[in-house]
């Protein structure tokens, strides 16, 4: 029974320490929040430029800076932020195929600025493609591998209807093709080192094929996960692994006005032979988190329910808006430990 007492003392100390670490990591969270605010600020500036210029040129030169605004979470904040690839190093190991939940994308986009409106697919349970991104393990990118490449919408004539349906621009304000141009120039030109993806038509057709093959609404639906539900990230992970047999990466955005995490994207990884592979080792905001029974790669809150919304939540714009990207660090780890221990 002496042992038992020691156990409880250690346990008490552990809890006490985690509470302190919690305070410390909250501070870390606050400071990284400031960093991401800076990012938001940058994109907003671009946005205003865009709005001022809206009436005249929708020019190629604008395209690069404005194209990714609706998806600023991917590009400016999480995935390929920061370091630019060194010229010449365009090597990559695998392809990330990303599907997004348009309701969340729309919500995020619309909340960012009061002028934003979005176009949602008509169908109810309908995931759309965000992109096909060649990625080097442990690195960001590569991206923009061919500086002289340009984007020719006409090359996609044959698959235009499908592209509009399955790879749509959620931001309804953009000129047709902006989103695809961005995806092609940034990611497609790098994927093009593979013969099967070495032109626009091949690249986008492959994305469409993968969507059909890895139909996200079915993968989740088969596990009883439908829109308008709340699920733990572990439940999502189990559903995905059951169907794919490989680790995906699961992405949320966190709305701290409502204190709700929304399911935003699910990324799956493929080899150069187009076989599914684990997304382990892919850089970005998602990190591997162990749970009893496996590992989940995510930026979502491990112990909180994740909302899979069926409708875009009503506007809450009057209040101070504050998007925050889930901070994955000690804080999350501790949350997990506490959840696991308690
Ligand atoms: C596109 O931008 C260039 C350089 O900024 C400008 O010379 C050209 O007139 C613009 N084209 C259109 C269609 O606005
Ligand atoms: C880059 O793009 C241009 C224009 O499409 C093309 O002619 C050229 O072959 C590409 N370069 C490489 C290295 O793929
Ligand atoms: C899911 O969570 C949201 C946000 O907390 C809540 O508004 C909603 O009622 C929940 N839905 C279900 C089906 O439990």
**Overall shape:** globular
N-end to C-end Cα span: 22 Å
Instruction: Give a count of the beta strands, DSSP E runs of length 2 or more.
Output: 10
Helix content: 40-55%
**CATH domain fold name of the largest domain:** Ribonuclease Rh, Chain A
User: For the residues shown, what is the average pLDDT?
Assistant: 77
Low-pLDDT sequence parts: 26-86
Bound molecules: 2-acetamido-2-deoxy-beta-D-glucopyranose
Structural class: alpha+beta
What multimeric state do the chains show? Answer: single chain
Portion in strands: 15-25%
CATH class of the largest domain: Alpha Beta
Number of helices: 10
Give a quick account of the main beta sheet: strands, pairing sense, barrel closure: 10 strands, mixed
Number of domains: 2
Radius of gyration, rounded?
21 Å
**CATH architectural designation of the largest domain:** Alpha-Beta Complex
**Helices and strands, in N-to-C order?**
HHHEHEHHHHEHEEEEEEEH
Identify the CATH homologous superfamily of the largest domain.
Ribonuclease T2-like
Subcellular location: Endoplasmic reticulum lumen; Lysosome; Secreted
Family: Belongs to the RNase T2 family.
Keywords: Disulfide bond, Endonuclease, Endoplasmic reticulum, Glycoprotein, Hydrolase, Lyase, Lysosome, Membrane, Nuclease, Secreted, Transmembrane, Transmembrane helix
Protein name: (Mediterranean fruit fly) hypothetical protein
């Amino acid at each position: 029974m002496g042992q038992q007492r020691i156990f409880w003392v250690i346990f008490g100390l552990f809890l006490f320490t985690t509470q302190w670490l919690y305070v410390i990591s909250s501070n870390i969270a606050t400071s990284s929040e400031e960093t991401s605010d800076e990012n938001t600020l940058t994109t907003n500036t671009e946005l205003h430029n865009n709005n001022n210029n809206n009436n005249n040129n929708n020019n190629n030169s604008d395209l690069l800076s404005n194209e990714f605004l609706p998806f600023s979470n991917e590009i400016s904040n999480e995935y390929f932020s920061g370091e630019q690839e060194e010229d010449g190093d365009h090597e990559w190991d695998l392809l990330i195929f990303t599907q997004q939940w348009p309701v969340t994308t729309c919500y995020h986009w619309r909340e960012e600025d009061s002028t934003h409106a979005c176009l949602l697919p008509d169908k109810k349970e309908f995931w759309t493609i965000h992109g096909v991104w060649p990625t080097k393990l442990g690195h960001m990118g590569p991206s923009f591998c061919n500086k002289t490449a340009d984007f020719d919408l006409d090359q996609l004539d044959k698959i235009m209807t499908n592209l509009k349906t399955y790879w749509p621009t959620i931001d309804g304000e953009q000129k047709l093709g902006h989103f695809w141009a961005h995806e092609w120039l940034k990611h497609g030109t790098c994927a093009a080192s593979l013969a099967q993806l070495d032109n626009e038509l091949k690249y986008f057709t492959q994305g469409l094929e993968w969507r059909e093959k890895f139909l996200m609404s079915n993968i989740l639906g088969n596990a009883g996960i439908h829109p308008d539900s709340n699920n733990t990230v572990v439940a999502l992970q189990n559903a995905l692994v059951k169907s794919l047999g490989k680790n995906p990466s699961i992405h949320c955005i966190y709305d701290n006005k409502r204190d709700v995490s929304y399911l935003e994207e699910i990324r799956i990884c493929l080899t150069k032979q187009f076989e599914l592979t684990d997304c382990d080792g892919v850089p970005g905001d998602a990190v591997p988190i162990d749970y009893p029974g496996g590992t989940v790669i995510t930026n979502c809150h491990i112990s909180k329910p994740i909302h899979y919304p069926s409708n875009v939540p009503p506007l809450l714009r009057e209040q101070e808006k504050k998007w925050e990207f889930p901070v994955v660090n000690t804080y999350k780890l501790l949350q997990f430990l506490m959840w696991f221990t308690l």
